[in-house]
Amino acid sequence: MRVAGVGFNCMDIYDNLQRYYPTGNSVDFIIHMSRFGIQSSMISAVGTDKHGELMIEVLRRENVDVSHLHVEEGDTAIFKMDLNGNDRVHKEKLAGVMENFALTDDDIAFVLEHGMIHTNLSGNIIEWLPRFRASGVLVVFDFTTKVNSIPEPILPDVDYAFFSYDQDDTRILEYMKWAQALGPRVVVVTLGEKGSIAYDGQSFFREGILKVPVVNTVGAGDSFCAGFMYGVIQGRSIPDSLRIGAETAAAVVAKFEPY
Predict the structure, then answer these.
(1) 66, 184, 201, 206: most buried, per Cβ within 10 A?
(2) CATH class for domain 2-253?
(3) pLDDT tens, position by position, for the chain (259 residues)?
(4) Is the pTM of this model over 0.85?
(5) Where are the beta strands (DSSP E) in the chain?
């Protein structure tokens, strides 16, 4: 199994703390996959600035294939960040070279060499999901907090759909049933400190969190997703995969960086 992160990457910058790090949903996911021992690639674009250089340096250090991480004239995407206690706050997004990112024919051929991809709503690749999935590539999609109608046209082309929500209630359970019926094999919802839920079309599965001192919640969902999908790759059950996700997320929130 080779796994690719496809689409958005950025630099999280905390001006008040004078700290920053390379990230993005798929970047965090793919770094964890590489650490699990899975062959991993990142397909995206960075700018010709120090942030782009750092992104490439970090991914190479993590043994991620960056042969299709394009360097474009301009600025690497950034998110201006802050902390509310230990909870990360997204303040401002500057898309930089990601604004015009699009897959090339060579990128598409490269994606098709992988068994699984991870992407999100900012990845600029939604139009290609039907082709990837029809070719046998498993599609993992992070919808973050978009528990609404936005995912509807995308869900038929997704194998594993991940959402973030705030509580285990009737609304989210009905939403998971609706979403799974549109196409995904499994729908997973992370609930912060309340744990997680997965639904496979027949049963709901729940898992709690591992309590650790929390430094920064950034990357919690991405690391959970990576842990869960690693369990899937290993042929583990949904409960086991939820547990691996929880363990992976616990290790991340106990540090400042998202991996």
Answers:
(1) 184
(2) alpha beta
(3) 999 999 999 999 998 888 999 999 999 999 999 999 999 999 999 999 999 999 999 999 999 999 999 999 999 999 998 877 766 667 789 999 999 999 999 999 999 999 999 999 999 999 999 999 999 999 999 999 999 999 999 999 999 999 999 999 999 999 999 999 999 999 999 999 999 999 999 999 999 999 999 998 889 999 999 999 999 999 999 999 999 999 999 999 999 999 9
(4) yes
(5) 2-6, 10-14, 19-23, 39-47, 64-65, 69-72, 78-84, 87-94, 116-120, 138-142, 160-164, 186-190, 196-199, 204-207
